[in-house]
Specification:
It is a single chain. The radius of gyration is 22 Å and the shape is globular. The protein has an 8-stranded antiparallel beta sheet, with helices on both faces. It has a 5-stranded parallel beta sheet with strand order 3-2-1-4-5. It has 16 helices and 20 strands. The longest helix is centred in the middle third of the chain and has 18 residues. Helix 5 runs antiparallel to helix 6 and helix 7 crosses helix 10. The chain is α+β, with helices and mostly antiparallel strands and 463 residues long. It binds adenosine-5'-diphosphate. Adenosine-5'-diphosphate (ADP) binds next to strand 8, strand 12 and strand 13. Adenosine-5'-diphosphate binds next to strand 8, strand 12 and strand 13.
Length: 463
C-alpha cells in the first residue's frame, strides 16, 4: 500500500534536469520527452558513442568510461558522479543496462536524486520470479499452474509436484532472466537431471540456487499489459500488446492491440494487474507479461521499466508514456483516469537491427546513406544518420519503425509501404526479413504463437 508523502517529501521529488543513463534510440527518445516537458538533459556516453547525435542536443554531455558496457553504462559510481557534476536531479535508466537493478534504484535515491522508475523493493520483488508469482496470486492475477514456492531438495516430493502439474513441465531459476535459467522436462525420466543442471546454472549465473516448477505451455502467444502508476495510489492500464514474433526470445515485431482477444477476457486480467500494482505500492511504468493459450492468460513476469515496444501503446492510447513516467517520478498525480483511456486503431512496430538477415550475426560499420519514411501515421524512433558508425559493443537495435492506422489490415499495408521506403546503406540490416514477414499469410491472419517466427525462418532456409 502507498504511504502518503508529506509536502517536504513531495518537494524533494521535483527536478529540472534529467541524466539519461542509456544510449542509442532510447536515449534520444527520453531526451525528446524531457525537452517537451521543459526539462534539461544530461547525456552520457562510452568512448564508442562519443559521436552520438543526442550528445550534441543535450544540455550536458559526458563520456563516463571505456566502450565495454561494464565500465561505462553499467558503472553506477561513474553515472552518479556524472549526475553530481552536472547538477542533475533525476536519473532515467531507459531499458536494459541498470534499468532493473534494485541496488541502482536505491543508490540513486540515497544520493538524493530521483530514480525514474519503481522503488528498489518493487524491482527486487519482481526480479525474484517466485516472489513475483506469489504477489500476483495474492492480487488475483492468473499464473501458470505450479506452486509459488521454491522446489524442495527431496526427490520424491519433486516428482509428486511434477505429477500434479502434469508433463511437460518447465524448471525455472527464481533469479533467472534474459531467457536463461530454464529447462523444459518432457517426461518423468528427465526430471532429476534437468533440476540438477538448472540448479547449477542458477547458482553460477544468478547467485541463487532457488528453482521453481510450472506447466510448460506448448503453443502460447506472448501478450502483455502496460500499466502506469503514480505515488498516490492511482494505477491505470493502457491496453495490451502482442509480442509473439520472437527469435531466441528476442521480440522482432510488436503490435497493439493483440488481435482476436475479446475485451471481456482481457479486462479482468488487466484489472487484476492494476490491483497488484496498488498492493505492492508500485510507481512508474511497468509491463505484465503473459502467455496466452486456449483463451486463458498465464502471468510469466513483470518488467519494471520502460519497454522497447512502448510506442505501439502510445500510438493507440494517445498517451506519451515516457512523459507520464517522468511526471509520476516527480510526484505528480496521474492526469488520466481509467475511464479516460481509449485505445483506437492498430499499431505495429518493427525492430530494425544491424545484423545479417540470414545468419543474424551483428553487422558493425558506417552507415553510408539512409532514407527513413515519414508521413501521417508513421513514426521512426532512432539515433542513426548518414555517417553514423554502428559499434560492435552493444545491442544491434538501430531503429524502430512504427505505424498507426484505423485497423490492422490498413496498419499492415502502411508498414509494407514504410518498409519499402526505408533504406539503410553500408551495413547489413534485417529489413529484407521484415519485408518478407509482412507478406506472410500466417502473420497477416494474426494470432500466431511464440514459435511461429523460428519455424517460418526454418522453412525459408529449407526452401
Ligand atoms: P526471462 O525473464 O528469462 O525473459 P520469462 O519467464 O519471461 O523469462 O520467460 C521467457 C520465455 O520463455 C517466455 O517468453 C516463453 O517463451 C518461455 N516460457 C517461460 N515460461 C514458460 C512456460 N511456463 N511455458 C512455455 N514457455 C515458457
Amino acid at each position: 500500500m502507498v504511504e502518503p508523502l508529506d509536502k517536504a517529501d513531495l518537494a524533494a521529488r521535483r527536478f529540472d534536469t534529467v541524466l539519461i543513463a542509456n544510449r542509442g534510440e532510447i536515449a534520444a527518445r527520453i531526451q525528446r520527452a524531457c525537452r517537451e516537458l521543459g526539462l534539461k538533459t544530461v547525456a552520457i556516453c562510452s568512448e564508442a558513442d562519443k559521436q552520438a547525435p543526442y550528445g550534441k542536443t543535450a544540455d550536458s554531455f559526458l563520456c563516463i568510461g571505456p566502450s565495454n558496457a561494464a565500465s561505462s553504462y553499467l558503472n553506477q559510481d561513474a553515472i552518479l558522479l556524472a549526475a553530481h557534476l552536472t547538477g542533475a536531479g533525476a536519473v532515467h535508466p531507459g531499458y536494459g543496462f541498470l534499468s532493473e537493478n534494485a541496488a541502482f534504484s536505491e543508490a540513486v535515491e540515497k544520493a538524493g536524486l530521483v530514480f525514474i522508475g519503481p522503488e528498489a523493493s518493487s524491482i527486487a520483488t519482481m526480479g525474484d520470479k517466485i516472489a513475483a508469482k506469489r504477489a500476483m496470486i495474492l492480487a488475483g492475477v492468473p499464473c501458470v499452474p505450479g506452486p509459488d514456492t521454491s522446489l524442495p531438495d527431496d526427490p520424491a516430493s519433486v516428482e509428486r509436484i511434477a505429477q500434479e502439474i502434469g508433463y511437460p513441465v518447465i524448471i525455472k531459476a527464481a533469479g533467472g532472466g534474459g531467457g536463461r535459467g530454464m529447462r523444459v522436462v518432457p517426461e518423468a525420466g528427465q526430471l532429476h537431471e534437468a533440476i540438477a543442471l538448472t540448479r547449477e546454472e542458477a547458482r553460477q549465473a544468478f547467485g541463487s540456487p532457488a528453482l521453481y516448477m510450472e506447466k510448460f505451455l506448448q503453443h502460447p502467444r506472448h501478450i502483455e499489459i502496460q500499466v502506469l502508476c503514480d505515488i498516490h495510489g492511482n494505477a491505470i492500464w493502457l491496453g495490451h500488446r502482442d509480442c509473439s514474433m520472437q527469435r531466441r526470445h528476442q521480440k522482432v515485431v510488436e503490435e497493439a492491440p493483440a488481435p482476436g482477444i475479446p475485451s471481456e477476457t482481457i479486462k479482468p486480467v488487466s484489472m487484476a494487474c492494476v490491483e497488484a500494482c496498488r498492493q505492492i505500492g508500485y510507481r512508474g511504468v511497468g509491463t505484465f507479461e503473459f502467455l496466452y493459450e486456449n483463451g486463458a492468460f498465464y502471468f510469466i513476469e513483470m518488467n519494471t521499466r520502460l519497454q522497447v515496444e512502448h510506442p505501439v501503446t502510445e500510438m493507440t492510447s494517445g498517451i506519451d508514456i515516457v512523459q507520464a513516467q517522468i511526471q509520476v517520478a516527480q510526484g505528480l498525480t496521474l492526469e488520466t483516469a481509467q475511464g479516460d483511456v481509449t485505445c483506437t486503431g492498430h499499431s505495429f512496430e518493427c525492430r530494425i537491427n544491424a545484423e545479417d538477415p540470414e545468419s543474424f550475426l551483428p553487422s558493425a560499420g558506417t552507415i553510408s546513406d539512409l532514407a527513413l519514411p515519414e508521413g501521417p501515421g508513421i513514426r521512426v524512433d532512432t539515433h542513426i544518420h548518414a555517417g553514423y558508425r554502428v559499434s560492435p559493443y552493444y545491442d544491434s537495435l538501430i531503429a524502430k519503425l512504427i505505424v498507426h492506422a484505423p485497423n490492422r489490415a490498413e496498419a499492415m499495408a502502411e508498414m509494407r509501404d514504410a518498409l519499402a521506403a526505408t533504406r539503410i546503406e553500408g551495413i547489413s540490416t534485417n529489413l529484407p526479413l521484415l519485408r518478407a514477414l509482412f507478406d506472410d499469410e500466417g502473420f497477416v491472419r494474426g494470432g500466431t504463437d511464440i514459435h511461429y517466427l523460428e519455424q517460418w525462418l526454418k522453412h525459408r532456409r529449407a526452401a
